[in-house]
């Protein structure tokens, strides 16, 4: 009878341990799935961020080019005006603005 009780207790404890291990394995499996999903999500976010950075860089490069071209044409026109006209108030105003433009450019 004592032997049977020991065997019963052994199987009872073994069953409890198996149930605990099953729960832990399920938890570990779920954590692994969550971790895999997070890794996939992080990869997607990284790709979106890289694409956004490239779009921003291209936008500002194009924007700078599109603004610089007409400003260069305007400044060239004013430089020609300064060379051909004699000293006047308008000429001084244009010189001052061109200098400011070069500083801002």
Instruction: Work out the helicity level.
Output: over 70%
Number of helical segments? 2
Uncertain segments: none
Total domain count: 1
Name the average pLDDT: 80
Strand tally, please? Answer: 0
The backbone outline, from C-alpha atoms, is: rod-shaped
How do the SSEs run, as a string of H and E? Answer: HH
Largest sheet: none
Question: What is the C-alpha radius of gyration, as a whole number of Å?
Answer: 38 Å
Task: Look at the helices and sheets and give the structural class.
Answer: mainly alpha
- The portion of residues forming beta strands comes to under 5%
Query: Span between N and C termini?
Result: 99 Å
Which key phrases capture this entry?
single chain; 105 residues; mainly alpha; 2 helices; 0% strand; rod-shaped
Task: Walk me through this protein's architecture.
- The chain is mostly helical.
- The chain has one domain (2-104).
- Helix content is 94%, strand content 0%.
- The chain is built from 2 helices and no strands.
- α1 runs antiparallel to α2 (89-104).
- The protein is rod-shaped, with a radius of gyration of 38 Å.
- The mean pLDDT is 80.
